[in-house]
């Protein structure tokens, strides 16, 4: 088997493939992401840890097609983000860290707008919307303009919109910030349900305790480089995650 055919066969095993990714912003003197390689299989919750400025959000914006990248490749369900970006993006549900939404729309109008973009049938969108509105206890506000929502309510609408097309890859950037405990529990339950259905969750967080309890695997990134890929099902890794994180990031900052 040739190398190219073997590579394609291997790629089909994963929902997300990142290989040798490099990204440098205009006029920057170093790469924000430098030679990052990750492969995520179906059915796993994958955590992405790093300090502020480590490159987490930049990586996520490359994965979702928001930012172009200089080198490497990103594939979503086998679709290359550079050469087949529309099909790649159809398989992504994205929750940004700034709950960016059209605030003059109502919650229902915004969710329907996203559902239209993904060609979600009326039957499917209504069933999913009803389920998620009840889950996140936001039915009372769905017909109000989003500009009057609290931070937590905006975050919930973003999450519902990200799930309305039932994406294979659910990407979340710091999803728990500003949420009440019950909403956090609801999101965690949905993460587990989403992966139990054969999908994949990729999320960044500063909450090491949450990542250690929730994730199957975790990547630690520092200064744009992958420092460690950890299988949390291996004995002792959940308990030692904080210590490993500190040793890989804080020691370098003191150097």
Compose a concise summary of this entry:
By secondary structure, this protein is an alpha/beta fold. The protein has helices at residues 3-11, 56-63, 85-90, 107-117, 122-135, 151-163, 181-196, 208-214, 237-254, and strands at residues 14-23, 33-41, 45-49, 71-76, 79-80, 92-95, 169-173, 200-205, 217-222, 225-231.
Q: Termini distance?
A: 47 Å
Alpha-beta classification = alpha/beta
Which residue ranges are poorly predicted, with pLDDT under 50 across at least 5 consecutive positions? 1-9
Q: What proportion of the residues form beta strands (DSSP E)? A: 15-25%
Tell me the major beta sheet.
6 strands, mixed
Q: Rounded to an integer, what's the Rg over CA atoms?
A: 18 Å
Q: What is the helix tally?
A: 9
Kindly report the average pLDDT value: 90
Order of helices and strands: HEEEHEEHEHHHEHEHEEH
Query: Oligomeric state of the chains?
Result: single chain
Strand arrangement in the largest pleated sheet: 6-7-8-3-9-10
How many DSSP-defined strands? 10
- Overall 3D shape: globular
Helix content: 40-55%
Detailed description of the structure:
It is a single chain. By secondary structure, this protein is α/β, with parallel strands linked by helices. It has a domain of 75 residues. 40% of the residues lie in helices and 24% in strands. It has nine helices and ten strands. The strands form two sheets. Strands 6-7-8-3-9-10 form a six-stranded mixed beta sheet, sandwiched between helices. Strands 2-1-4-5 form a four-stranded antiparallel beta sheet. A hairpin with a 2-residue loop joins strand 9 and strand 10. Helix 4 packs parallel to helix 6 and helix 8 runs antiparallel to helix 9. The longest helix has 18 residues. The radius of gyration is 18 Å and the shape is globular. The relative contact order is 0.17.
